Amino acid sequence: MTITEGVFSSPSDGTLETDAATRQAVLAAAAEGLLRPDKRLPAWLLYDARGSALFEEITELPEYYPTRTERAILAAHAGEMVEAAGLPVAVAELGAGTASKTRLLLAALLERQARAAYVPIDVSPSALAVAESALARFRGLSVHPMVGRYPEDLAVLDAIPGRRLLLFLGSNLGNYDPEPAAALLAAVRARLRPGDAFLIGTDLRKAAGVLIPAYDDAAGVTARFNKNVLARLNRDLGADFDLPAFRHVVRWNSAASRVELYLQSERPQQVRLGALDAVARFAAGERIHTESSYKFTRAGLRALFRGAGFRWERSWEDPRRWFAVHLLRV
Ligand code: AVI
């Protein structure tokens, strides 16, 4: 991929994810995760078009505090953040989604430099399409959406000339287990050049009484989001999951400092995994672990950043100290 004067072209070297590649990855994830006693699915499977739309709904829920808290931090400090990154700068974003919060940073940036490139990277083409059309009204901004995953597709960053500000917002890091999280940060660090900045948003550890409702909302949107992964497997895999036979379950694992999402089989059942030519067997009460959402401590984050080779420069928090945005440097 090259980015010059707003022109974007994609490589044909396999760094982009194709539909066929996605289907292969879904198959591999189901084979790895559903034919074992401790059943689990990777969280990225939650984000097909419907899952991404449901996640957008989650971000508006009264119980789901992370998005509006991070947005408030960005609204209060976007100017300081882009100035601290060092201008002029091109912006790239991992897990950009619809880029709704990013607009605050881009607006602050365009008040300070006339033109800027923005490369949103996400697994969801539908979310990227929303981002692109919403950003069309930003004068001076050239948007180069990239369907891809990370760390697999981080090479795309190499094509962005000059100083880069890489964003990783929304506590997306929290959906990685500690080892992959450390590996992802190290892979990001390895792709950045001296002078580049990395702005990362992280949710902070807090009372279970706040955390559980955020993932088990009264309107049942998170339950629909979680169960949608079974609908996706029915579609992509030709599986025959009976959605009403599974229940959305949320647990706070204090020792691991994470909220855990499960789908619990309400009865003994067998599910045919069509494309795998295999059957997944469930006992009554047996669960599939579908997502973890880690809640960080400041000390844990500093150690994680340092371990990945980053220099911590600054953090911004909300008045309740529920969420933090950090500026890291290579
Ligand atoms: C995207 N990610 C940071 C969300 C979170 O809070 O862990 C995903 C989510 N899952 C259920 N609700 C929100």
What does this entry look like structurally?
The protein has helices at 19-34, 49-58, 65-85, 102-110, 125-135, 178-191, 208-215, 221-237, 298-307, and strands at residues 2-4, 7-9, 39-40, 90-94, 116-122, 141-143, 146-147, 164-168, 197-203, 246-253, 258-265, 269-273, 278-282, 287-294, 311-317, 323-329. It is an alpha/beta fold. Strands 4, 5, 6, 7, 8, 9, 15 and 16 form an 8-stranded mixed β-sheet that branches. A 4-stranded mixed β-sheet has the order 3-14-11-10. Helix 2 (49-58) packs antiparallel against helix 8 and helix 3 (65-85) packs parallel to helix 4. The chain starts with a strand and ends with a strand. N,N-dimethyl-L-histidine is lined by residues 58, 66, 170-172, 174-175, 215, 222, 225, 291, 293.
Give descriptors for this structure.
globular, disordered N terminus, binds N,N-dimethyl-L-histidine, 330 residues, 8-stranded mixed beta sheet, alpha/beta
Question: What are the SSEs and their pairings?
Answer:
Blueprint: E1 2-4, E2 7-9, H1 19-34, E3 39-40, H2 49-58, H3 65-85, E4 90-94, H4 102-110, E5 116-122, H5 125-135, E6 141-143, E7 146-147, E8 164-168, H6 178-191, E9 197-203, H7 208-215, H8 221-237, E10 246-253, E11 258-265, E12 269-273, E13 278-282, E14 287-294, H9 298-307, E15 311-317, E16 323-329
Parallel strand pairs: 3-14, 4-5, 4-8, 5-6, 5-7, 8-9
Antiparallel strand pairs: 1-2, 9-16, 10-11, 11-14, 12-13, 15-16
Bound molecules: N,N-dimethyl-L-histidine (AVI).
N,N-dimethyl-L-histidine is lined by residues 58, 66, 170-172, 174-175, 215, 222, 225, 291, 293.
